[in-house]
Write a structure and sequence with these properties.
The structure is a homodimer of 501-residue chains.
Chain A lengths: L5 H4 L23 H4 L13 H4 L9 H22 L12 E2 L9 H8 L9 H4 L8 H14 L11 E4 L2 H12 L5 E6 L5 H6 L5 E6 L16 H13 L4 E7 L11 H13 L3 E5 L28 E6 H4 L8 E5 L2 H10 L7 H12 L1 H29 L4 E2 L6 E5 L9 H13 L2 E2 L1 E2 L10 E5 L4 H16 L24
Parallel strand pairs in A: 1-11, 3-4, 3-5, 5-6, 6-7
Antiparallel strand pairs in A: 2-8, 7-8, 9-10, 10-13, 12-13
Helix pairs in contact in A: 7-14, 8-13
Chain lengths: 501, 501
Amino acid sequence: MFTLPQEESRAPAPCPSPASTQDLDSNYGDGLERERSRKPDWKLPELCDSTTMLSPDSSYLSSRGRVIKWFWDSAEEGYRTYHMDEYDEDKNPSGIINLGTSENKLCFDLLSRRLSQSDMLRVEPSLLQYPDWRGHPFLREEVARFLSFYCKSPAPLKPENVVVLNGCASLFSALATVLCEVGEAFLIPAPYYGAITQHVYLYGNVRLVCVYLDSEVTGLDTRPFQLTVEKLETALQRANSEGVKVKGLILINPHNPLGDIYSPGELRDYLEFAKRHELHVMVDEVYMLSVFEKSAAYRSVLSLEGLPDPQRTHVMWATSKDFGMSGLRFGTLYTENRDVATAVASLCRYHGLSGLVQYQMAQLLRDRDWINQVYLPENHARLKAAHSYVAGELRALGIPFLSRGAGFFIWVDLRKFLPEATFKEETLLWRRFLDNKVLLSCGKTFECKEPGWFRLVFSDKAHRLCLGMRRVRQVLEGISQVAEEPPSCQTEEPRSRHRET
Amino acid sequence: MFTLPQEESRAPAPCPSPASTQDLDSNYGDGLERERSRKPDWKLPELCDSTTMLSPDSSYLSSRGRVIKWFWDSAEEGYRTYHMDEYDEDKNPSGIINLGTSENKLCFDLLSRRLSQSDMLRVEPSLLQYPDWRGHPFLREEVARFLSFYCKSPAPLKPENVVVLNGCASLFSALATVLCEVGEAFLIPAPYYGAITQHVYLYGNVRLVCVYLDSEVTGLDTRPFQLTVEKLETALQRANSEGVKVKGLILINPHNPLGDIYSPGELRDYLEFAKRHELHVMVDEVYMLSVFEKSAAYRSVLSLEGLPDPQRTHVMWATSKDFGMSGLRFGTLYTENRDVATAVASLCRYHGLSGLVQYQMAQLLRDRDWINQVYLPENHARLKAAHSYVAGELRALGIPFLSRGAGFFIWVDLRKFLPEATFKEETLLWRRFLDNKVLLSCGKTFECKEPGWFRLVFSDKAHRLCLGMRRVRQVLEGISQVAEEPPSCQTEEPRSRHRET
């Protein structure tokens, strides 16, 4: 038995509430949403109660090592369960269908074909030697050209503002460390992709302060869970009043898990807010090419003329989502701030990717013909078809959901299936899905403050998707909807022609 | 202008001296010894004097971010200079020859041929999806088999004790973080591969306590710079008495920069010392297959029967040195301590390597025919030939050096060329070499406490090596040896038939 000293553990102090209360939910790696969704009620043990949660066997580790291990163990439990019973069409047809992990499994055929071409295997001495830790110059040039084109930047982006590394998880870790002192914080609108909590905390010891969003459409809101400057201001003020030093704002656009796309006007408002308070803005655009609905009119922050505070605006992109290759480990930072780029680069010796992969990525990113004429149209068509199918199923079940035309998931309102509006009931429902061999992610893992929301990933092959949806339906049809329905929430998207209820 | 608050910066407090005094010398990445050797007198600015050293322009960064950036900037200066005038046989024959970076450039032909074979390009969905962050099971199995064979373990090593990641720099970072609290320390015999200072400090905020070794052979020593348990005990006691908490011991075997190989008896003595004090031992064996002299009789720590404290013994290996692929970014941990393996794995989401590279590495490591019949014999023959050439040149110049038959470098005693035994004079000599277009690494960057030692890398192609040595000779022949020679040091290796003076 041991006690975890608060100071040594460097675990986050209790968050200011209610604006910024946040649990340190955990999951397994990044592919981890899979795991995350298997254990929705993980919490970092309260420090005063650490003896019960952290194994006394970990005495070989430092206190922070025990916390780091705890994150893995919590997830590992889910990981083991899932992999013990993973669905396989032939070998394990009654195994678990995974509609929880945000991976695009629709285009492995296209990707395998492209990545297997002979131009992908190039071995040169320079690729086998120590690299420039910012990334090989040929790759940074290609990334700059790629982002200039796909982000529609008003002027060509510069290779010297690019730093490449092994994924956005690493980028969050590096940015948190170089921008914040220990214990400082970033604002983040919630619900949000929960793994970011670990990314900024495990090495960087940085906290997240949630800007909680409501499903209810009130005031000047035009949609559920709408982020407004007023909500940002309130959360920031509350954090300040409770002594939490906020150094930046994290924006995810297109949003995970909401699927929301910020309009240029909204983006500018958020950036102006940040500028007023001298906050860095990290814009995570990993789904920028996964906008499959043309009407969605996505705009990258790099497309804006005259950023309010370019020295504090840092853009993140990766191939994990837009090229369906989460296992390839390629991510990139774009920032005009030379100090930030340099400091991140200095940490890149711990986040480096193979020279051979850097070559492959440059080949891929420069192949505009394949991207524009083969990959993107086909990928978008497949995403749209899969989305339509799931949306239709949900509609048939009378389940409200947000439909946004971007990303791999639908944010689903299952509140009416909870006997009580509690996270305990949410977990029970999640477990009923799992018992019926379908894995979803529940809202708690995204720090949603209203129990009953789930994220459902649709970017999977038809046969798995159909089976998964059938299992979802079986569970829901077996539940009598609660008498007292929760207050109806406007789940339609007024600015889109895709209105779902 | 700003001042860097000591607490916020988390910069190391002044080290206990003399046993453990240590500057935070810096370099560029890992390929960085190149840079390191270009700027031998970097120091972490004294905090009280930070206004002069750390740029006031870095106000966008946290204090730790500024320190992290400072490491890059210091190295960047060297990086720029070197790359502005890099030697090229055709394009820049008067450019700088690099005998400073420890890379093996002798076998790119063999490697390129093997890595270009068609079996190396395999693209499967599982390789493109989120991996197990410990490494794909197929790779961990291959690593366990590989290490069992080449380390000659008494029993087969287990895949579950293997964690793979993107290089040993990352592994040092992760181990420091999970084993130590902020500000705690590892013992390390000095001289040592100086980049480790950053690896344990930048993210982990862990310090190194030097166990300084002498060139003079005294007492029961049998060779220069001999590590003994007595020296370990003394350094540990001094650290303890000065309030520095030491949590582990780092051993490099074969040693960088000495080239020393520890005998099984020595290894066991060091491990017993560590066990007595409950210290973790990190054994860095990245040069284990680069022992080109058969008489050298290298033994991996994994070959020992009955490790004294297996739960605190953690072995590191990588392909950077032994397979001459520092740009490929593959390293591995082997430890029987499940807690340590798990905690490191939890950080591996920030140190992950591509699934495609994992596949390639498994293919390479399992190809015993190629390794045993092609690569290793040829590599060793080339290393030996290059070593013989440089040793002969040094002998002809009357320069004492250590000759050990392992690694890519020779530890050279140039003390008699310094007018005074100071690091200032060492730097001046280093600069004379550079002015004559040959880059070496001077002893200061390895925390050698005697000015005048240099590390000379010989693992390069003959034409570059000859030219480099000619330039070295030109510099030394232009210097009149100082009248008062330093106390002669026994640079011969009594247990080896390769005695050099």
